[in-house]
């Protein structure tokens, strides 16, 4: 698969607006430089994901709902056609497949496979089928109407330690005031679906840990420019403290609710961006539900 380069933009350099302050910006630069050197020494392409490790002073949510929150990034992580994607729809699947894969449709070649919720349930009786679904698709999407039923269907293969939790999508833009009187609504808007998939594949996401204080968010890759990574770090911090992102974002409310911010690759130690205490680096070893494998 072709590796992603961050697209060029006309946005201001992160150093003019770094929310964590000048000292944190300079600390982040040094840490990124060290992680890039580490990646070059251990990876021929040195295209390693960079994870922002955020330790908070407050709980973000009381209960884990297994729903990834999308965080908008200035520099996108992937193009829409760079990921292998499976879509799980409500029944009947043929209606959605016909519309989404119709010649000339915005989603004609977007999905590697489209399966029904009924078929997904049948995978529960076959470990091999679940493993194949997991390994052959980088992104799993699910119709909002069956989304809450999936943890019982896909099980720990996908949900344990947030390994590959499905993303929720709407098959068509909701129409307020429209009642179906208990009937299954058959509507699909390929353009609307594509726009959601583009947002999911291009931006980063996280699942807030219930009762936890630590989580990880991808902010770029080790072969990107430092300025691009800093801009995306800024975007992530803004998402957590800015009220405009409520109710899904803005959960920290203010910067003072951050305990520490670090950055790492999947096989490196956590390097400082903003440290409140000397022991902040050790906190990355506990309380996290993230699995890098």
Automatic annotation (TrEMBL):
<protein>
    <recommendedName>
        <fullName>Ribosomal protein L1</fullName>
    </recommendedName>
</protein>
<dbReference type="InterPro" id="IPR023674">
    <property type="entry name" value="Ribosomal_uL1-like"/>
</dbReference>
<dbReference type="InterPro" id="IPR016095">
    <property type="entry name" value="Ribosomal_uL1_3-a/b-sand"/>
</dbReference>
<dbReference type="Pfam" id="PF00687">
    <property type="entry name" value="Ribosomal_L1"/>
</dbReference>
<dbReference type="InterPro" id="IPR028364">
    <property type="entry name" value="Ribosomal_uL1/biogenesis"/>
</dbReference>
């Amino acid at each position: 698969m072709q590796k992603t380069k961050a697209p060029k933009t006309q946005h201001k350099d992160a150093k003019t607006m770094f929310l964590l302050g000048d000292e944190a910006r300079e600390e982040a630069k040094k840490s990124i430089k060290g992680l890039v050197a580490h990646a070059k020494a251990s990876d021929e392409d040195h295209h390693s994901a960079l994870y922002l490790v955020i330790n908070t002073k407050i709980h973000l949510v009381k209960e884990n709902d297994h729903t990834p929150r999308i965080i908008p990034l200035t520099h996108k992580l992937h193009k829409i056609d760079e990921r292998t994607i499976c879509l799980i729809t409500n029944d009947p699947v043929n209606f959605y497949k016909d519309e989404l894969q119709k010649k000339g449709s915005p989603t004609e070649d977007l999905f590697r496979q489209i399966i029904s919720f009924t078929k997904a349930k049948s995978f529960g009786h076959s470990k091999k089928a679940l493993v194949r679904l997991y390994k052959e698709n980088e992104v799993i999407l699910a119709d909002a109407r069956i989304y809450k039923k999936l943890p019982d269907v896909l099980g720990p293969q996908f949900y344990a330690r947030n390994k590959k939790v499905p993303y929720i999508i709407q098959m068509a833009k909701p129409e307020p005031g429209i009642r179906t009187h208990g009937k299954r609504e058959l509507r699909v808007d390929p353009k609307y679906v594509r726009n959601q998939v583009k947002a999911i594949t291009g931006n980063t996401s996280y699942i807030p840990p219930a009762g936890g204080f630590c989580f990880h968010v991808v902010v770029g890759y080790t072969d990107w420019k430092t300025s691009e990574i800093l801009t995306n770090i800024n975007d992530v911090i803004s998402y957590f403290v800015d009220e405009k992102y409520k109710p899904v974002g803005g959960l920290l409310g203010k910067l003072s609710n951050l305990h520490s911010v670090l950055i790492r690759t999947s096989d490196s130690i956590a390097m400082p961006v903003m440290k409140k205490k000397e022991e902040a680096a050790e906190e990355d070893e506990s309380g996290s539900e993230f699995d890098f494998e």
